[in-house]
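To: structure subgroup
Subject: Chain for Friday's discussion

All,

I'm putting the inputs and outputs inline so they're searchable in the archive.
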Amino acid sequence: MFEISFGELLVIGAVALIVLGPERLPAVARTIGALVGRAQRFVASVKSDIHQQSQMAGLQELKQDVQDAANAFRDQVQREVDDTRQVAQDIAYSVEPVSTAVQASASELARIAHEASQPSESIAPEDMLAAAGVVPEPQPAVDEGQLDLFAPPASTSASDQSVAEPRS
């Protein structure tokens, strides 16, 4: 700060001793020391306040940056939520006709099930085959009273065979 050498301080001290005298010089030196101490404490206090203010300004900037980031994140999340809601509404609108068709099909199935549970006239197997589009092969008419010589013999018991076969 001040560039005062040791020689200059000796000159100032000698002049003060001559001007003030030996009785008053210690009291003036104490007063000057107290004033210099106060000045140093004041300068330290000002430096401390400036340092705190600069830190507070940095914290204020940091706080503002964090708030800006939080606002940007909230806006992004809100946009995503809005987009998701829009997609959900689109899906709901596209599912609504399918839901109506499913309800109509379910009511039709319920009606058919109800009709099926009601007793109705019996259907002949031939009619079922005809409805299914299957044509049965024609069966030759069998006369129960006529003997078929070429048919394999029916299994009969041993006593029946003895009666049926001629003895030699």
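Points worth raising on Friday:
DSSP finds four helices and no strands in the chain.
The first helix runs from residue 6 to 20.

D.
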